[in-house]
Specification:
38% of the residues lie in helices and 25% in strands. By secondary structure, the chain is of the alpha+beta class. The protein has a single domain, classed as Aminopeptidase, CATH 3.40.630.30.
Amino acid sequence: MKMEIRQLQEKDMETLLALRMEVLSHVFNRERENMSAAAWEELREANRRYYLRELKGKGHIACLALADGEIAGCGGVCLYEEMPSPDNPSGLCGYLMNIYTRENHRRQGIAKAVCQWLIQKARARGAGKIYLETSECGRNLYQSLGFREMQDYLKLEQD
């Protein structure tokens, strides 16, 4: 298999949005079933606005993985600043997201290659910390890349 990771730009917006909505429909399948077509389209447009703003402002790096010329997966890293600290003097952080491999391409190293590519890009921009959320099925992959459980974090749920 010939694999290639390609960065997505504003000119790739329709591909980028199609992949984002595919990922969301898999991750949030129950929520998707309860959304109207109008609400789903509104979410798509909110993602378009995000990408237009953040790709231009260098706050997001998006990529897709090609396997033998076919789209096999995708991923992104959101870059943001927090207050500088001893463990991250630059204050720049990366948040890996949208790491996804299409079912017929799984277990071929695509997600790992996407993560490594995104981590390298985030580090090149100066990100001292890189975070992610994981499902149980992705945990082993991320741990193999050096990610560790974080303690003492809490999440405030929406009402």
